[in-house]
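User: I'm writing a short methods note and want a consistent example. For non-specific serine/threonine protein kinase, I'll paste the sequence; you return only the structure tokens, no commentary, since I'll be parsing the reply automatically.
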Amino acid sequence: MYPSLLPTCFLSHIHYIHTFCFYAFHIHISVYIHKVSEVRFSLSVKNSPISSMDKYEVVKDLGAGNFGVARLLRHKETKDLVAMKYIERGQKIDENVAREIINHRSLRHPNIIRFKEVVLTPTHLAIVMEYAAGGELFDRICTAGRFSEDEARYFFQQLISGVSFCHSMQICHRDLKLENTLLDGSRAPRLKICDFGYSKSSLLHSRPKSTVGTPAYIAPEVLSRREYDGKLADVWSCGVTLYVMLVGGYPFEDPADPKNFRKTISRIMSIQYKIPDYVHISQECKQLLSRIFVANPSRRITIKEIKNHPWFLKNLPRELMESAQTNYYQRDNPSFSLQSVEEIMKIVEEARNPVPSSKSVGYFGWGAEEDDEKEEEFDEEEVEEEDEYEKRVKEVHASGEFNVI
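Assistant:
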């Protein structure tokens, strides 16, 4: 019996689930103002972007990831809910962060989380974006076990629509996975792609110094550490997402030994996967998967070909048809963000400066020192697991056992 995704969540991907909660906002605003006044800023108080925080109020914590933490906030005037991702000022504000913000700002599409603005706090850079009330697609599958073919197709159609738009804007995501696909709160959930931290302009070929992405979703050519086409690597990741929705497990992990990275890499390189007998899907669906899971990217199906595939076109919602999305594809449309690229980069550059005596200010400039300690512990765990996987990739690559044909 092929195991469901739910145990795999805890055995192989526990660090991708929100593993701890942060303390609620509990410092009186007068104390916050007093502490903020003690921090020196290069920007004047009158023109400082910090004042933008005044229009939001904290609702609750949403969770944590390798980027930092996320919170749900409410706009005081409009009452709109927004998600805010906090990244500690200083060394963590690297080229990945700047690239994520600029790339995300350029993407206006119904299947992509909307970027709104960036805000500088005394201790963090905050990225404000659309809030998806339905949570992660990952959690929906964990609850359901697996989807019917029709439900999987419904979400896959939206995923491909969003990815197609990214590619049309010459942006490759490079870390597509269930955890990076959110759902809105509607009865017929709309899928929203998020987290563009690894994204890269496809005008330049990808030659990463390290293997980017998430183990179970990585394409063979990415593991090979040679120059690769980011668009075709995204296609592979979309295929893994479709498989997980249909089966409830990852295609290239050994069900009996999901933590064995070396075996996972071997199975990816040799395209070793199967559809369990108890999972009944159409031949058209199986054929589409077989065209996605191709080791040689030049022979792999493209996004354009997927959008013309009979299985994909079946029951395609009207809103996903090309004619219905014309307005979203017009580049002269105003951005959802009112901030210019220049304004954003000025704030990001300011965020690169570490905050002196940040411990005395506290977490986000609001909380207690132990929150900082919790974040440091979480970061150490993330680095250890990422380093272990990177080590395994290097070992396999050095052995010369696997090559992309």
